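From the shared-data thread, chain only:
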Amino acid sequence: MLEKLFYTETSWFFTLLRLVLGLVILPHGLQKLCGWFGGYGFSATLDFFKSEGIPYAIGFLVIVSESFGALGLILGLFTRISSLGIALTMIGAAIYVRKNGFFMNWFNQQAGEGFEYHILAIGIAVILMISGGGHLAIDSWIAHKVK
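Structure, as tokens:
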């Protein structure tokens, strides 16, 4: 069972996808966790989620997924679990947060952002859940040791 969790396809393509998704999501997680990049930090983010009707437990999982899950992707550690957390977070954000259509707000002509970014992140996360982290993933080393 553990071997299947950590097994990864040996492909540079999956490595690239893992790094891109992790590096794109990590700043969002650090906004929520540490208050970096103009974010509010852990407590204020949880309070914001609560004011939007999102329970503290779900807010906590979002923060963990976007920060530690993104770090996991960058390192290739628990790639499948990290990808699942990010995919679930993006599904929730697309459904509950983004109500401004499909397109991103490139020209500031709509009330907010659309959900196309979320679809891209979900697509990459699903690929990583299936394939694993590719080359240079800690998961592959663990899979070898578990074998």
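The radius of gyration is 16 Å.
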